[in-house]
User: Fold these one by one.
Assistant:
Number 1:
Amino acid sequence: MSTVTAIRPEIQIIQVDPFHPQLGHLFPFILRRILEFAQIHYEEISPMAQAKDYGARLVAADPKLYVQAFISQEGALVGHSVAEIMEFAGKKWLFVAQCKLDVPGGDCITRALTEGEAWAAARGCTLMMMSTARSDSAWVKQFGFHTIRHIMGRPIEKKKGT
């Protein structure tokens, strides 16, 4: 007699809902992760404001915000992603603002992006974009992104007398 073992992904991906009866307790931990990510990758545009904005929008059930938690088989929070629908001139796209996995997770990021893409497509989006401070080539090779534009920045100094 043979035994069939169900194949389970190493990491489960759940959409974050602060009011979910069993999983709502993850909300403050997700907010902490969002803040910590922003402190590293978005330090130039107020990490605390970004975390507060995403937190408030999650609590308000903003239909344009999609936040995922990555949960290990042991029940530990080991990653997250934050994406939002952007709109301009009748066009809609999904912008992946944050995506981080703390441990090796097999195809976790691929699954998270696929789920986000399906969520966005159901809401009329035709493009998924993201910003990365490093490893452009990895995002191209592993996840099919390609460079559309480069975002560059420099500080603006206040002129004397203005």
Number 2:
Amino acid sequence: MTDRFWADQLDPGERLLWTGRPKPRVSIRNFQLIGPFVGAAGTVVAGGLLLTYSDLPVAQSVILAVIIALVVISLVRGLNKWSGLTRTRYALTTHRALFFKLEKDQTRVKDFSRSAETKPDIRPTSPPSVFFIRQESMDKAALVAHLGFEYIEDSNSLSALMATSYEGADK
């Protein structure tokens, strides 16, 4: 993201404070990312056991079709999540938190006012995820989402820029 890009994105008087992107590591803490791949492997193992101990040829073909479908669905879900993270970028300015999704022909941007900032909630992913934007649904007041920057390496430097830092962060 070049200086020209930021000049187009920022409002007059707005300063860029921090930029980052998700950089998840393969770990047990990130099971929501590696879970689909573990699920695909488990499906293959379970299916292999079923096929080994099933005597009916029709049952074997049905089991094989179900195994293939489940493995494909699981792998596609996992790859979509990883792919989405590789195309995501974050920025924090003096006025807004920006979420970018890089696509082939365009960059989609969602921005949230810093007035929606809440006390950060750090999740122990690897690296940490920091959730600090409260978004309420217009039509359903009870529906509230807590948004933030996922899998960021320099969460401490980000926390220092927030109104309220999370516990344990360096100020």
Number 3:
Amino acid sequence: MKSRKYSRISRLAALLLAGLASMSSGAAMPETEFACKVRVLGGKIGLVLVQADTRALAEKSAVGVQAFTTDDMRGRTTSVLECIVPNEERFSDYQFQQFFENLPL
């Protein structure tokens, strides 16, 4: 069971790094972290974590990167459904909010 937990943490860390790598490396790191509910290739729902100055930039940054899907897989993001600021906002979809809250971040 522990190996699965660490595997999930590793995948989430990789997703965060992928989101950060898509931003310009010469610019200062934005202060706001966003959690985005996304759709991936094949239609599955997933999560991407990104740092951005605005919600619009977060949505733009989340497209095309690897997302962690609700079925414990990964997929490339095709569209963004919703972005929130964790600890300040909640996803409108209760089940997705529960998925997000139960991830070992």
Number 4:
Amino acid sequence: MNNDVNEKNLSDFNWDSPEFLKLREVAQTQLREEKRLFQSLKDARESQGLSLEEVAFRMGITGNRLEMIESGNIDPTLGEVGRYATCINHKVSFKIKEA
């Protein structure tokens, strides 16, 4: 029953509305920023000669999970982002501001 409601709502949705297009643009910008963040962390890790497995061990996660984080295939927790930075002698700060 709930799926029927969702399908109806999606079929009636205006994918070309200015509101949706703005949300899509914001989401794409966020994805690009996240990709840059993880590329920066990965570059710093590699420049220090640290293996993915070594940093993953330091973080308390598997190498596979860290690889997925670096490649953007999964969203890490804020704690994982902070631990990653700490493990490579970096610091990540977050700023919350009104959009």
